[in-house]
Amino acid sequence: MTISSILAISDPTEATDGFADTMLGVARIFDAELTLALLAPAPVAGERAYPKHLTTQRFNELVEAKEKRLWSVARKENCEVRIFVDLVDAALSAMVRQSRCHDMLLVGPIDTFADAELHRMLLQKLLLLSGKPILLLPPAGLEGRPRRLAVGWDGMREVTRALDCALTLCASDAEIDLISVLPLTAPPTLRTPAEDMCTRLQERNLSARQSLARAEHASVAATLLAQAVAGNADLIILGGFGHSPIRESVFGGVTDEVIRNRHTTPILIVH
């Protein structure tokens, strides 16, 4: 898979303004065309607005100002701009349709959206319906093609697709750490869930190793992210929604926890 077209998504507030340069930097790393997308769910009387308590007048002012700022960046960088203004469900559906025309999607951290709920809704929709990899960027962005990859490995379809995608993004001398997070009560085993995949990667002359982590007093997501950060990972790779999103939001899950929280390392997530 070659990354030749990237869709970078922002909201209408000033929160995402400083993130445009970060997104442009990622497009340059992969020598890809960048499209700047504005997601702007229109407020409706009596219904939830994004951000909360947004009046129609203020919404129009924000969208107009943000559109001007995006086009100012786009003209300098020869980018395209797409505007998605509609009721929230229609705007998200239109964004999903557009996302399928690109190779990878960029979404900033939760801080770059003025409304955390819109950020979560967007990521859920894109993960489940776009069929594309999503790169969740921290404020620092991405410095170059990643060399140290930390993979949350459970052997499921979703993370297998995510790893395949990551191998096209990483540096040729990348080091891959397949991390299996087991519950504290899991019995010791001679084979880890990542052993077979690690062997196959090594057969392709890739530097790969397997790690075992036990979720003690922290969640699986927190354990995985902590081990990746401790290993100085440049990129964390996850499979998205191995369980249904409803189950994850009610009972907890790695995907839902990652979406809802801040992170300092880029995360590639694929459903």
UniProtKB/TrEMBL annotation:
This is UspA domain-containing protein. It comes from the Bacteria. Gene3D superfamilies: 3.40.50.12370. Residues 147-271 form the UspA domain. It holds the Pfam family Usp. It comes from Sphingomonas sanxanigenens DSM 19645 = NX02. InterPro entries: UspA.
